[in-house]
Amino acid sequence: MTSNPSYAIGIDFGGTSVKLARVLPDGTIAARAVFDTTPGVESWLDAVEAALVPLRQGAEGECIGVGVGVPGFVDFDRGFIHDLTNVPGWTAVPLAEKIRARFGLPAVIENDVNAMAAGECAFGAGKGLKNAVFITLGTGVGGGILIDGKIYRGAFSMAGELGHVSIDKDGIASPMGFGGVEQYVGNAKIAAYALSRIDAGEDGAAILRQAGGRRGAVTPKAVALAAQEGDPLAKSVFDHVADCLATMIASVSYVLQPEAFIIGGGVSNAGDILFAPLNAHLERRLSAHFFPRLKILRAALGNDAGVIGCAALASHLA
Amino acid sequence: MTSNPSYAIGIDFGGTSVKLARVLPDGTIAARAVFDTTPGVESWLDAVEAALVPLRQGAEGECIGVGVGVPGFVDFDRGFIHDLTNVPGWTAVPLAEKIRARFGLPAVIENDVNAMAAGECAFGAGKGLKNAVFITLGTGVGGGILIDGKIYRGAFSMAGELGHVSIDKDGIASPMGFGGVEQYVGNAKIAAYALSRIDAGEDGAAILRQAGGRRGAVTPKAVALAAQEGDPLAKSVFDHVADCLATMIASVSYVLQPEAFIIGGGVSNAGDILFAPLNAHLERRLSAHFFPRLKILRAALGNDAGVIGCAALASHLA
Lengths: 318, 318
Description:
The first copy, chain A, is an alpha/beta fold and 318 residues long.
């Protein structure tokens, strides 16, 4: 990298911790830092300032800028945070301006899932793709859309809310409508679905054993482990999850026809237990014009997608 | 227009007739021509050649180019027709090349619904919008997507197939999947739904009267006329149609967050009978972040959207 001695700082602002990384132009992480999330804006900036000292130690070249991925609604163009989910004291914060004033560095502020999408598309599973959709499976279902090599944000920076795409017009209600896919495949929903099948009389021994015998400890991971052992109920639960996801992915394919969907997040760690039935259901749900042209990829950057993506955005790479 | 004496030719290639127009830079139509659709490519080019003579008579300035909107799958970048729906003899046709060779004019070839979307967004209801979604309601449900002022075509020129967006993962089957919205709101589906409610014992007198007493003549228009008279069943049928559409529109909103949806096609002629319940269902189906920021507009160009849009595409205006 001596021919291009520059770097960007990526900051992945999570509900419990804030992860920072110094990221080189090829997407590799040269140094890391982390601190616990605290409520106020000024104390957050203090903690960033402290973390930047070891992070920049020994760095060659200049810092291009800072990218921050946050859990909430932002105005990307203005570098402005409208509101954060589950982090008090972060309403109407002009964070890019504050970072520039305090550190003398240009900054971009992005929604956390868009930041992960930017990372995967710049340096991960979607490297080289022009049109792709990133999906993260966890508590909810998040999405980030890449169009023509750039993150697509829509008219008011809120595009890509894939978790609210309806898979059943008369389905489960939420403040976002009816039948949103995350009402079926969010972490807690998968666990509740597995337990409801056990309660209805199906054999849940393998799932409960993976959960240490405690109903409250049934998670998608416990179900996936049981499925990997061949447990029929656990496999059927993941088939249901895959089918719900396939319904949403097929709908989004008909709208956007991306080159690929890139799927990450905890539930995707189930691997073939999820991806094999997902492909089978997609073939059933997509026409012969669409299915053979669509790639389903597993995210490649894991928990680093956020910091790498923030750095990519700060470097105008996505 | 003396300061910019130029024009484009728009050709709306339909299954039964081919409509041509000479379109000025402000989107107005200066002259029209039409001929019946015939099967072969060469006879089609002969008919276009004949139609161009009166069409260009008296035209000022030079012809910028020709845009053709066709009912089928195209490769926009190559000006190539893969296949047309319901028009024999049009497989693998390099039409842009043929038009250039025959008439010495640059040509663009587009899917008919994308052409209408281009027309509405360049000169119709969506004038001035950067991100919008056009929906046409007829035999099926077609869609065209405008992103950043340009028609978005996806990875293989097939994006915008809104009719196949699922509103029910276990819904009506078709070769495109399960529960595609056009399985509920296509012309014949609306008529069949109305008749099924009559067969189930509801009072269909007003609808059947509008259909001249013949079950086979029940159409969305007949139902709309009955609804305009206040018939409860007819109003309920349109409420159902509006709710199915709202489910799809809400899903697409969560994906793309366009500034507006522009709705055209025969079923949209029902006017308030459709649009009033559509807005009510959208409010129910969209979060408070999305609903107040979304406009639902009625298409403004009617049957001219196609030729005007083709001319806009030939002029690189969409």
